[in-house]
Batch of 2 targets.
Target 1
Amino acid sequence: MIKTLGIHHITAIVNDPQRNIDFYAGVLGLRLVKKTVNFDRPEVYHLYFGNESAEPGTIMTFFPWPKLLKGRIGTGQVGVISYSVPSDSFPFWEKRLQKFGIKWTKSERFNKEYLQFQDPDGLQLELVEGNESPLNPWTFGDITAEHAIKGFSGATLYSAQSYKTVEVMETILGLTCVGQENEYVRFTSEGVLGNTIDLKLNPPARGLMGAGTVHHIAWRAENDGQHKQWRDILLDKGYHPTEILDRNYFKALYFPEGGGILFEIATDPPGFTVDEPKNDLGNKLLLPSWLESKRKELEEKLPQIEVRVMEGE
């Protein structure tokens, strides 16, 4: 049985692209690793944030739609996005969030403490300490490697039909169920990042897609061959995956799992240095070859954005 190493990326919808950059780069210290457009709707940015090397398991991406109505987090969605930070870094992050006027709370599950807060669009985020994955050497503003977000710890899924989601995670993705605590069932993968998935058994009301919600979660395929195998498995088991699509930085296929959450399987290669060197990631607008002829038109339509150090209140 082929098994995913864990989360490849998570994609969410927000409203304002500059506010998005100010929070994820300016406040959280993630690296803007790719500035491109939504290939299907090129009048909208597609922004990618990750660790210094833009590795799978660290990539959070956004479609910023300025006029889109706010959504509602609920069933059929990823409810909470979990980030991994180094051990003993909570005091730093508590002070930093307070500095920017961001309210936070703490909770515990599976013997781990979580620092929970929201982004400006209402996405539910949390930090969890750990030493299992390597430090992220990317530094930005006051954030150094000893405190920097390393990548995803995992995510919490809000399924409309939990047993159907469990079936996909175990029999198709190859995740391992490691236990249940109260209303959470935990699954793990063998990767070092994005390897912990919690399924909430009593999720809130039905989710509504819009700004402030996750659009899809993508799982890692190690190469093109494994990716094609997964598509064959999905077809054989009665799912309806899309054709394999070229997203420049990875190959992608999408399918709705039985609990209503949009799943993607994405290849690790070729990666985000395929069209610009590692040192220059995120510095300029990158377009796929079929949109290069529209570069001038798109650059005039798209709002001006920049990565900037935020000072706080």
Target 2
Amino acid sequence: MDSESLIAQQLLSDPRVAQATELLSAALTEHSAKLSARGPDAELAEPYQKWLEVFAQLRGNALFFPYLGSGVGQGALVELADGSVKYDMITGIGVHAMGHANPELVRELVPAVLADTVMQGNLQQNSESLLLSKHLVTLANQKGASLDHCFLTSSGAMANENAFKILFQHKAGSSRILAFENAFAGRTHLTGQVTDRPKNRVGQPLTVPVDYVPFYDAARPEESTQRTLQTVENLVRRYPDAHSGFIMELVQGEGGYYSAPREFFVQLCQRLRGLEVPIFFDEIQTFGRTHAPFAFQMLELDEFADVVTIGKMSQICATFFRKELNPKPGLLSQTFTSSTTAIVAARWILRKMIDGDYYGPDGRIAEIHQRFVARFEAIHAQAPDRISGPWGIGGMVAFTPLDGSPEAAKKVLHALYEAGVIAFVAGAGPARVRFLPPFLSLTDDEIESVCDIVERVLLSDALDQ
């Protein structure tokens, strides 16, 4: 596809493109290097507040944080339009794993900016989509899975929507979905029904019944496992041949960063196989962030993967499925696959993931996690009423603040934001603070700086007021 007979290749080989790329990279590197964590510029406070108020009016509700980015950053640092510079530990809820303004990625994106269209889609896809799909399928199957197909899409919710459509068509006549309690599948009409959060669907008609199954309880491992298995048996017996599949997050994201040992999932998946219920691994948030590229690979569940979805850090989302589940033409289609820049960025991210030393028990992701854990445990030892575990897994880092109430979590989140660290909430009962740090660029110094701020905030007397 790189034949010199193609004008596209002649364009990319033009020395002016190389020169422009070097200039852009140099300018970005030079100006990003000026960034350091700091508070807002007093002169920008009033106009910034007005912008926030206008935006809130336009969108109908205020932003969770008063965050309007300037468009400049460096790694974990991001500049806001009020002049402040903060440590971004939530990265768009896991999207910006490469960090802000990564100069290496910017160099990769120049050809995408020069491409003939902004978006690729149903009728017109460029070679980048083919190469990305091939790379993804190879990666998904590298430890023995049989995921023959990969359908690209522009959002995690749509990847999950497509998965459900595949499952419902595969099991003709099925009308129900199995899911774990505290599941989060998205915010479309269907995925919002699967998401175990009633407040997210107030006023929405319920059209697809979802049967919730209790998740693993680390305090009662054997009892909770048997309870899960028995609940599945009871539901399938009550609604024979009615379940299209079981969607499961192997690490519950919005549910609070809880996971379970391999033995729990093996027993559950084997039971589902015996009941002829397809297995759907939702890896929108876990993809790339555990001790293997996929969480199902980390847990060695490859043989059970019927449908898998990825998103967030991959930039472009995807639904993988076995050939036996390949749907009839017309079921999956969309105007937009995604932007050419997102597709090119996805290929670069995959290369970084695989070529870098990120995975395994001694990989960079495990190292990053342990550095956070060491600092959190030190704070816990000093003030056990201020922070407690568990601490999450891999690049999904979490802690329970204060008494774990929603009010306490919100107070800590906003105190961290004001102090210069952007995080987010997860879970309920307890509510937890979660990080999804930019692990592809995060430095040890940045981890220490972030943890210094976390320590100051958690030990501050202001939280008692």
